[in-house]
Design brief:
Blueprint lengths: L1 H18 L8 E2 L2 E8 L2 E3 L4 E10 L2 E3 L4 E5 L2 E3 L2 E4 L3 E4 L10 E3 L2 E4 L17 E4 L2 E3 L2 E4 L5 E4 L2 E3 L2 E4 L5 E2 L6 E3 L8
Parallel strand pairs: 1-3, 2-4, 3-5, 4-6, 4-7, 5-8, 6-9, 7-10, 8-11, 9-12, 10-13, 11-14, 12-15, 13-16, 14-17, 15-18, 16-19
Length: 185
């Protein structure tokens, strides 16, 4: 029994020694241009403007209240979540931006650009999801400005509720696998 206990304690000690040098990556705060491989995810905070350009993000992207995200020619593994963001732009061609790949869902709620909102499509959109591949559902809830969802391939459905405006597809409908509850103008 002592021998078994000694072996167990030795294995635990070895495991602690091996894994003590391996730290979990904390999210990278983004305010400016971010490219290359980013482990641990990305967070965009109040007042920050994050440009993902040629980035591969592992761990997802979170846009907090007052943050702005522009994502071009990038891959996000882990999904995209934005609540109370100023603006979220993904793959918007008119911004000179190539589409992205999102491996995970997209949840964007309560964006506030254009609040009070002008009639669409005046000014920039509060939300633009364009020319991208999204491998997960897209949920758009309570957004105040106009939204463009165009030219995407979305696996997992497209869901809208309590937004001020219906969506615009800019003449480029998205291919959606799954249920769609959104209306387009």
């Amino acid at each position: 029994m002592k021998r078994l206990m000694g072996c167990f304690v030795g294995m635990v000690g070895l495991a602690l020694a091996v894994f003590s040098n391996v730290a979990l990556a904390a999210p990278t705060e983004c305010n400016g241009l971010l490219s290359g491989h980013v482990a641990g995810g990305v967070v965009v905070n109040d007042g920050d403007v994050c440009f993902l350009g040629g980035a591969t993000v592992s761990g997802g992207v979170k846009v907090n209240g007052g943050g702005t995200l522009v994502a071009c020619a990038s891959t996000i593994n882990g999904g995209l979540v934005a609540n109370d963001a100023t603006q979220v732009i993904v793959g918007a061609e008119e911004e000179g931006c190539a589409g992205i790949l999102i491996n995970g869902g997209v949840h964007i709620s309560n964006t506030r650009l254009g609040s009070p909102p002008p009639p669409p499509p005046v000014g920039p959109p509060a939300v633009a999801l364009e020319n991208s591949v999204i491998k997960g559902g897209v949920h758009l809830t309570g957004n105040l400005g106009w939204m463009a969802v165009a030219g995407n391939t979305i696996s997992g459905g497209l869901f809208c509720s309590n937004n001020v405006f219906d969506l615009f597809d800019e003449g480029l409908p998205s291919k959606v696998t799954g249920e769609t509850t959104c209306k387009f103008e």
